[in-house]
């Protein structure tokens, strides 16, 4: 079914047309949302919201415009809203921590994972040398805070503080990068 026929069927409330639309675009939409949000739950929510909006606003669809343009414009705007929302500031790195563990393990298969890793690497590179060292030792999983403190001749509180600041800085840099890529 082409976009024009699909749009006409959607406007008439045809659930089969909606299912076809969902099956055609949901995977693509999820991959795009996950690429920028780095969080499975937020990406799933963004896709669910996208298709809910399509269904509730189906009367406003214009059969002269390609459906995928409309879909991805709505999705892009939702992703930008999520990224700009300060309540979601904690999400950016949470699902990426497992990617961070593979940062030196060039066995990343998925292009989206590679793009996320590149974004994270760029953010880590912007940390001060001391903060970068603490962060790298901490995410390696090989050292406790006390061992890092001993190794770097710092107090344990300094290690904890610098690590938490590194996480905040990386999260913010990734969020800003994702927003700028979407705009």
Automatic annotation (TrEMBL):
Residues 118-170 form the RNA polymerase sigma factor 70 region 4 type domain. One of its GO terms (molecular function) is DNA binding. It comes from the Bacteria. The keyword Transcription applies. One of its GO terms (biological process) is DNA-templated transcription initiation. Pfam families: Sigma70_r2, Sigma70_r4_2. Keywords: Sigma factor, Transcription, Transcription regulation. Residues 21-87 form the RNA polymerase sigma-70 region domain. InterPro entries: RNA_pol_sigma-70-like (IPR039425), RNA_pol_sigma-70_dom (IPR014284), RNA_pol_sigma70_bacteroid (IPR014327), RNA_pol_sigma70_r2 (IPR007627), RNA_pol_sigma70_r4_t2 (IPR013249), RNA_pol_sigma_r2 (IPR013325), RNA_pol_sigma_r3/r4-like (IPR013324), WH-like_DNA-bd_sf (IPR036388). Belongs to the sigma-70 factor family. ECF subfamily. This is RNA polymerase subunit sigma-70. It comes from Barnesiella viscericola DSM 18177.
